[in-house]
Amino acid sequence: MPSNHPIEIAFSWPMDPDSVEAALEISPAINYSNEWREGNFVLTIKPITTLAADTVYTIKLDATAMSADGIPLGSAFSFSFTTSD
């Protein structure tokens, strides 16, 4: 069953929210809002609408995302998941 459950990304260091959000890409595109928790260590992506059924979603974070101290991520990161039908 499709869902709109939040997607969380946990970082090893506190992050700069603006740079992370600018470096974030979700494919296929969705409407979402963000919430930062735990001192900017955890980004929660909250889909506004239900995700499509039986679809592979990929979340990419470009290497330009920076820590709260201004240190770039250094390398791009991505992961994928599939919604149920």
Q: Care to give the gist of this entry?
A:
With 85 residues, the chain is mainly β. It has one helix and six strands. The mean pLDDT is 94.
Notes on the protein architecture:
This protein has 85 residues and is mainly β. It has a single domain (7-82), classed as Immunoglobulin-like (Sandwich). The protein has one helix at residues 17-23; strands at 7-10, 24-27, 32-37, 42-47, 56-61, 77-82. Strand 3 and strand 4 (42-47) form a beta hairpin. The longest helix is centred in the N-terminal third of the chain and has 7 residues, at 17-23. It is globular, with a radius of gyration of 13 Å. The termini are close together.
What attributes does this structure have?
mainly beta; 1 helix; 6 strands; 3-stranded antiparallel sheet; Immunoglobulin-like; 85 residues
CATH class: Mainly Beta
Largest sheet: 3 strands, antiparallel
Structural class: mainly beta
- How many distinct domains? 1
**DSSP summary, beta strand count:** 6
Beta content: 35-45%
Annotated CATH topology? Immunoglobulin-like
The arrangement of helices and strands along the chain is EHEEEEE
Numbering strands along the chain, what is their spatial order in the largest sheet? 1-4-3
In round numbers, the mean pLDDT is 94
Report the principal-axis shape: globular
Unreliable stretches (pLDDT < 50, length at least 5) are none
The name of the CATH architecture is Sandwich
How many helices? The count is 1
